[in-house]
Amino acid sequence: MVDSVAVTEVSGAARALAAALGCGLLVGLERERRKGRGATRVFAGIRTFALVCVLGAAAALTGSVGLVPVGALLVAGLAVVSHWRDRSPDPGATTEIALFLTYLIGVLCAWSLPLAAAVAVGLTGVLAARERLHRFARQWLRPYEVRDGIILAAIVLIALPLMPDRTVAGEGLNPYQLTRLLALLLAIQSLAHLSQRLLAAREAIALSSLAAGFVSSTATIASSGLAVREGRAGARLMAGAGLLSCVATLLQMAVIAAALQPAWLAWLWLPTLVGATLALGLGLWLVQGALAGANAGANAGAPAPVDGAQAQRMFSLRNAAVVAGVLTLVQVGVHGLGRWLGPVAESAGTLLAALFDLHAALAAIFVQGTPPASGAPDRLVWTLALALLVHAASKSAVAWASGGRDYARWLVPMLWLHTLPAVALILWTPVRAG
């Protein structure tokens, strides 16, 4: 027993030291390539980084409480002396900080090998991407994008963690969920803005809308509507973007069914395929038509001209806050109405929930049971179909409220044009008979 424990401890220590050596060599290899030559060369290269990382692991493996801090002070002192003696025309502290972090990676190897390896790979990636990161920060990013990015980061990293995740001032009003919805709206607007800069207009609209739809199709429709209301894009173009986000809604319905109750896939695969294909085709038609109209100088669907102040922003914080507040009030009203209805029917609460969050409503339906193997649709199937209709009505209202009449004129008919066939196929029974 004693021998087996000792062998296990030695084996664990050997793995930690080997991992530390590998991590140090990985980071050191990148630094060696940038070390330079002559009097201006950097003091630390591949051997120094490897030894420092092994030093950290060895210090941690000894179990001595004071040895790890002593090693950290030694490495920090070397880094300070190196920086002080640096004679290069543009001295930086990257190598010195990377050396100290490599020591900490070695310490991590004694505690968690996966975490240490992940930090080492991440550090090496950041060091290797020096030119691209500098070019991205100095040339590609625009000043207003930096400003808006700081605002979004402050909301996500500071405001959101400080918000209480509980209901206040009545059931259904959750400050954390409200702040998260606001951050989501701003993130989707930022994603669409940056995609349009990175890609051609058609590909940017399609990819960003599809990706955002997997997060929240309703929020994507609201964000697209805000772009129309603020004059940053045309109604037809943004209607196509909103419609493309609905593809994700239908695909997620099938994914949730597969995860919670696979028996539902027999009812849903055909409606999902037809509905998603129609949404994709109609969305691309709207986007292509809007861009073609813009290129030809037509007014229908072409992005509206914007002034300099409107263009210098990734999102509108005020308008996003208004939409988030409206959606939250709807959620509070739905919750209150559900309490007022009492035990009327479980399906009524599900339909009310579908006004705001379709996938939560679908999950509630799927966990209640399986659909009939054949024959006419039962209560759960009808509830599922009605939930899709209710959610389409909710999206229509959001489109009108966020983007106005022109935006809703393009989006709402297409929204129902792909929803109604999917609902009809869910309720269509001959294909599943006997």
Can you walk me through this structure?
With 434 residues, the protein is an all-alpha fold. The chain has two domains: 2-136, no CATH class; 191-308 and 316-432, no CATH class. 77% of the residues lie in helices and 0% in strands. It has helices at 2-33, 46-61, 67-84, 94-109, 113-128, 130-140, 143-162, 175-198, 201-215, 217-229, 235-260, 265-295, 308-311, 317-341, 346-353, 358-366, 379-427. The model is unreliable at 298-311 and 430-434 (pLDDT under 50). The radius of gyration is 28 Å and the shape is elongated. Helix 4 runs antiparallel to helix 5 (113-128) and helix 7 (143-162) runs antiparallel to helix 8 (175-198). Residues 17-135 form the MgtC/SapB/SrpB/YhiD N-terminal domain.
User: What is the general shape?
Assistant: elongated
Q: Percent of residues in helical segments? A: over 70%
The overall pLDDT, averaged over residues, is 76
Order of helices and strands: HHHHHHHHHHHHHHHHH
Query: How many runs of DSSP E, i.e. beta strands?
Result: 0
Q: Separation of termini?
A: 65 Å
Structural category: mainly alpha
Which sheet architecture does the biggest sheet show?
none
Give the uncertain stretches in residue-range form: 298-311, 430-434
Beta-strand fraction estimate: under 5%
Rg on CA atoms, Å: 28 Å
Number of domains: 2
